[in-house]
Amino acid sequence: MSDCIFCKIISGDIPSATVYENDEFKAILDRFPSNKGHVLIMPKTHVANIFEIDPDMAGRLFKLAAQIAPVMKETFGFENMNVVQNNGPIAGQTVNHFHLHLIPRYENDGVNVSWKQLDLTDGEIEEVRAKLAGNINI
Ligand code: AMP
Ligand code: ZN
Questions:
Q1: What is the mean pLDDT of the segment spanning 42-52?
Q2: Which helix (H) or strand (E) holds 83?
Q3: Ligand 1 centroid to 4 CA: how many Å?
Q4: Pairing between strand 100-105 and 80-84?
Q5: Disulfide engineering: 39 pairs with which of 16, 71, 93, 102, CB 3.0-4.6 Å?
Q6: How far is CA 30 from CA 14, 68, 135, in A?
């Protein structure tokens, strides 16, 4: 994708602070991090979002996240982390190339990863559950 900033990072046209890469994935420091050590993991092929990524690739990417996260924890000495992955502009995705955020968290760090909670009835929960469960044929 010629207009994708992460594809340009992967091709080397735009510099990045790479912390790890293999044939399939690249892990870099976020250029505008929420906290120091905020890491992004992305596939080297252009895949826009979770609706387009091959589930096996997503599995390998998450495996890599689970390998890098404890190293970050040890390296920076934090205890808590958010793993965030945005899909589409309404969900906050600003770079249209699949990436996982690994965000170190510290007490009172001001980082906000939250949502308001709906107070649904049991009936409403069941309605939603039945609708979705009926469509999952894996
Ligand atoms: P998202 O909003 O989930 O699409 O996340 C995109 C992330 O990419 C943001 O956290 C940005 O700070 C980060 N970002 C944007 N440009 C660059 C860049 N050139 N190098 C590294 N990270 C970037
Ligand atoms: Zn791309």
A1: 98
A2: strand 80-84
A3: 11
A4: antiparallel
A5: 102
A6: 13, 15, 36
User: Which token pair is 9?
Assistant: 């990072």
Distance, CA of 39 to CA of 37 (rounded, Å): 6
Which tens digit of pLDDT belongs to each residue from 72-88? 999 999 999 999 999 99
Cα of 137 vs centre of ligand 1, distance in Å, is: 34
The overall longest dimension of the chain from CA atoms, in Å, is 53
DSSP character at residue 109: -
pLDDT in tens, 114-128: 999 999 999 999 999
Residues framing ligand 1 (Cβ under 6 A)? 5, 14, 16, 28, 30-32, 86, 92-95
> Residue 19 carries which side chain, given as an amino acid letter?
V
Residue (of 3, 82, 1) closest to 37 by Cα position: 82
